[in-house]
Amino acid sequence: MSQSGSELKVAVLVVAAGRGTRAGGAGGPAKQYRHIAGRAVLTHTLEAFAAHPRVAQILTVIHADDRDLYDEAVGGFAKTLEPVIGGATRQDSVRNGLKALEDHRPDLVLIHDAARPFVSREVIDRSIQAATEHGAAVPVAAVVDTVCMVEAGQRGETLDRNRLGSVQTPQAFRFADILAAHLRAERDGRDDFTDDGAVASHQGLTIGVFPGDPMNTKLTTAEDFSRAEERLLFSLPDVRNGTGFDVHAFCPGDHVVLAGIKVPHDQGLLGHSDADVALHAITDAIFGALADGDIGSHFPPSDPQWKGADSAQFLAYAVDRVKARGGMLAHVDVCIMGEAPKVGPHRAAMQARIAEICGLTIDRVGVKATTTEQLGFVGRREGLAAIASATIRLPV
Ligand SMILES: Nc1ccn([C@@H]2O[C@H](COP(=O)(O)OP(=O)(O)OP(=O)(O)O)[C@@H](O)[C@H]2O)c(=O)n1
Ligand SMILES: C[C@](O)(CO)[C@H](O)COP(=O)(O)O
Question: Which residues make up the annotated site Positions MEP for the nucleophilic attack (predicted)?
Answer without folding.
Answer: 161, 218
